[in-house]
Amino acid sequence: MQAIRTEKITKKFGRLKAVDDVSVQVEEGEVFGLLGPNGAGKTTLISMLVTLKKPNSGNGTVNGFDIVKNPSEVRKSIGIVFQDSSVDDELTAYENLDIHAAMYGVPEKERKKRINEVIKLVELSDRMNDVVKTFSGGMRRRLEIARGLLHYPKILFLDEPTLGLDPQTRKHIWEYIERMKKEHKITVVLTTHYMDEADLLCDRIAIIDHGKIIALDTGEKLKDMLGGDVITVTSEHSSKLKSRLKGVKWVKEAKEHNGKLTIRVDKGERKIAEVVGIAKDNKIDIKAINLRRPTLDDVFLHFTGRTIREEEASGKERMRKRIASMRGRR
Fold it and tell me: Using CA atoms, how far apart are residues 27 and 204, in angstroms rounded to an integer?
């Protein structure tokens, strides 16, 4: 059964098509990943699916409800964790959850039971009555996930849920997501800038750029699509090396980024010596060179022209600005 279905859904802002004729299906119980550069259309697509924005054309259903004709039914059946923190710092964890339960019409007799269930799931039972402003960033994210699950949604939308968190907290949140999928058969739509997160959690991954889905498959099949091996060269003259490799028959692709040159080839263990030889003949100094199989980062670079690390860096910059802004309001 399909939890989400869109047909040629489009959203414009003036002349800009933020989402451009996107047709996609998400199966019930699936963890579906959305990857793309900043401004690619990920958040706009999610905003339409959760009925925060209306499409200019096309149509979509979520849990069988039309996102334009039946927005109330859609909202009742989904949970959302946004990029920006939306819990109230001045309230306790319990109070935040209780208000949310009331807003979603959870019967008063059931609220305490559900609150205890979700807060236990994210391991915050011992902090239930503490004011949220005393929580760490990771604890706030876990509370927001608990809040998103409070009314037993069929689909949970997670928009960069682990952005800016430390590796240990990210790992804990991954475990919650996997547990939700297995124990509660919840469908999860996830946007992330972390390739390991997408590779580990997602059943299928869609790469979106300029408002269009340009690749969609399992992580393994996306990596297999590139084929061959990847040689990465670190050099102050990577542009020069790239130009010298242009036209070389065994080079499938060569892309430069951040002082590094990524070269896709077959039988990389043989070609690495040839790359070194070409660099030596052209008096190009190589600081480092390595050989590996393609990763999701290579897939992202192939389709978007940027590495996910560059996107992650800009994401961290957004997080720093967000934190500075929050401090300025206090």
Answer: 10
Q: At what angle do helices 137-149 and 167-184 cross, to 10 degrees?
A: 10
63 and 74 Cβ atoms separated by less than 8 Å: yes
Q: Strands 57-62, 65-66: parallel, antiparallel or unpaired by DSSP?
A: antiparallel
Cα 66 to Cα 44, 105, 262: the distances in Å are 17, 21, 44
Q: pLDDT tens across 258-301, in order?
A: 789 999 999 899 999 999 999 999 999 999 999 999 989 889 88
The encoded tokens of residue 183 equal 């124990």
Contact 76, 151 (CB under 8 A): yes
The answer to whether 176 touches 145, Cβ cutoff 8 Å, is: yes
Domains of the chain, start order: 2-222 (3.40.50.300), 228-293 (3.30.70.980)
Res 195 pLDDT > 70: yes
For residue 232, what is the enclosing H or E element? strand 229-234
∠ at Cα 246 (245, 249), nearest 5°?
80
- Write out the DSSP string of 20-43: EEEEEEEETT-EEEEE--TTSSHH
Neighbours of 31 (CB within 10 A): 23
Q: State the Cα–Cα distance between residues 74 and 51, nearest whole angstrom.
A: 8
Q: At how many degrees (to 10) do helices 137-149 and 108-121 cross? A: 140
180, 111, 208, 188: which is closest to 151 by C-alpha?
A: 111
- Exposed, middle or buried by CB within 10 Å (0-12, 13-18, 19+), for 267? exposed
Q: Rounded to 5 degrees, what are φ and ψ at 195?
A: -65, -40
Name the nearest CA neighbour of 123 among 78, 95, 102, 93: 93
Cα distance between residue 83 and residue 141, in whole Å? 10
Rounded to whole angstroms, how far apart are CA atoms 28 and 3? Answer: 5
pLDDT digits (tens, 9 = 90+) for 115-170: 998 898 888 999 999 999 999 888 888 899 889 888 888 999 998 888 777 788 78
d(CA 320, CA 124): 26
